[in-house]
Amino acid sequence: MSGNGQYLGLDFSTQQIKAIAVDDSLKVVTEAAVQFDTDLPEFRTQGGAHQHDDGLTVTAPTAMWVKALDMLLSRMKASGFNFSRVKALSGTGQQHGSVYWKTGAASTLQHLQPDKTLYEQLKDSFSVEDSPIWMDSSTTAQCRQLEQAVGGAQKLADITGSRGYERFTANQIAKISQNNRAAYDNCERISLVSSFAASLFLGNYAPIDHSDGSGMNLLDICERKWSQPCLQACAPGLEEKLDQPVPSFENLGSISAYYADRYGFSPDCKVITFTGDNSGSLAGMRLQQGDIAVSLGTSDTLFLWLQQPRPALTGHIFCNPVDGHAYMALLCYKNGSLTREKIRDSSADASWEKFSQALQSTPMGNNGNVGIYFDVQEITPYAVGVHRFNSTDQKVESFPPAVEVRALVEGQFLAKRAHAEMLGYSVGCNTRVLATGGASSNTSILQVLSDVFNAPVYILDTANSACLGCAYRAKHGWLGSSKVQFQQVVQGAPEYKLAVTPSPNAKQVYDPLVGRYKRLEDQIAGQ
Ligand SMILES: O=C(CO)[C@@H](O)[C@H](O)CF
């Protein structure tokens, strides 16, 4: 894999647009960003979005994303970045968001004038000016309609990898076709945020990729084609507005001449399919078969690599962005660091040191005491409340402080393992846990994670993992995904740091405890 080129990753995320360039050894050489709220105040967004008065609808101005790209590239040019060295670029977009290109916009995209900004030329190219984004929760009716049309929630999950979720694109499209038919009819192409961004660079409509397309409730994730029952249930004439989905590592062709003329990109710079931000993160974290990535933040997120997925009513299964025969899964937990902090305050004198001492002073399995701490409405599963059980499954009102601390941490990780296994993951000899996020700096917490999964835990700096992952994917696509595996391309990337390994007998303690935890969780979720 020779070459002295550079590879550019772009991330069109909720609050900013970011670029990272890496050299041939995948070392970061440039970073740049535009913050929507502060750099483009004329759009008056908060966190990159507009929260509507109904308390459910959340959108972002499509033209703001276009203007942000003008600003980002101008900043990079002004800083002296040499665009001519970029061999290929790829990117991500916040998942589920959608862009509605007005009839006739293709011609404008194909004939961009280098003496004008993208914004000047494209600002009136969208039949829906405010794109629905992933924070929207206004389409519950459309979710139920879609689930009913295809045979129920589990059937929709079996087809598309997820039950109906309000933020998923099919339900947003259905809402627009039902409530704003003129805008829907005056739209010749619907893009995701990722394929919209790719279209800007390609100077033509870019296709939706399999991985981000898996977040729409429209793609049959086994066939990797649009599901006809889902298309027909969603909106009339939808398939022609979407075009056909493609693998997430396709070389879409050369960059639009607009960028060569205006910024000095090489005319031969290749555009590699863009994908969703979580898929980009999987690439940036360099997950491979057998890996689980655990992001321990305000909400906890699990990224799984799956070979044989089992779609369920919780979690999401997407086509894998770097391996055309594999899948990935996402599990999101609302009760994350705030819950850990609450127990730290109530049972460890608000001290992480005492929190850690409590974990060190209590045995694996906590003498049979199990806790489920859903302070706020949990989404995995849909349940709420704090529930404590003693070794004979009797509900108890409280635990001693140290037992409470361990019950919380073990409960959170037993939940993650139970739901991961429900989606088709199996803990085995090649399991690696990659930990990131605030709590990954606490070795005692990581020790419990390692024991529950009976696997080594590595620490990963995933700052900008989505953007970095796309720079990696750009090189993979440029080299030719049919010629080289993604894992080979990223071999030279910085190594993970081994943090902890499982305690002796961890397997004997936690393998049976996972089943017991799941039974207790089902019991409280069923309430
Ligand atoms: O909704 C989500 C995943 O399903 C979020 O992680 C968005 O992708 C954030 F942009």
What features would you describe in this structure?
The structure is a single chain. This protein has two domains: 274 residues, Nucleotidyltransferase, domain 5; 208 residues, 2-Layer Sandwich (Nucleotidyltransferase, domain 5), CATH 3.30.420. It starts with 5 loop residues before the first strand and ends with a helix. Helix 5 crosses helix 7, helix 14 packs across helix 19 and helix 17 crosses helix 21. With 527 residues, the chain is of the alpha+beta class. Helices cover 38% and strands 23% of the residues. The chain contains 21 helices and 25 strands. Helix 18 links the parallel strand 23 and strand 24. Strands 1, 2, 3, 6, 13, 14 and 15 form a seven-stranded mixed beta sheet that branches. 5-deoxy-5-fluoro-D-xylulose (5FX) binds next to helix 14. The site of 5-deoxy-5-fluoro-D-xylulose has 12 residues, from helix 14.
Q: In DSSP terms, counting alpha (H) and pi (I) runs of 4 or more, how many helices?
A: 21
Amount of helix: 25-40%
> Can you name the CATH architecture of the largest domain?
2-Layer Sandwich
- Tell how many strands the DSSP assignment holds: 25
The number of distinct structural domains comes to 2
CA-to-CA gap between the ends? 57 Å
**Overall 3D shape:** globular
Radius of gyration: 23 Å
Low-confidence regions: none
CATH topology of the largest domain: Nucleotidyltransferase, domain 5
- Structural class computed from helices and strand pairing: alpha+beta
Biggest sheet overview: 7 strands, mixed
User: Which ligands occur here?
Assistant: 5-deoxy-5-fluoro-D-xylulose
Please report the first level of CATH classification, the CATH class of the largest domain. Answer: Alpha Beta
Pfam families: FGGY_C (PF02782), FGGY_N (PF00370)
GO molecular function: ATP binding; D-xylulokinase activity
Keywords: ATP-binding, Carbohydrate metabolism, Kinase, Nucleotide-binding, Transferase, Xylose metabolism
Family: Belongs to the FGGY kinase family.
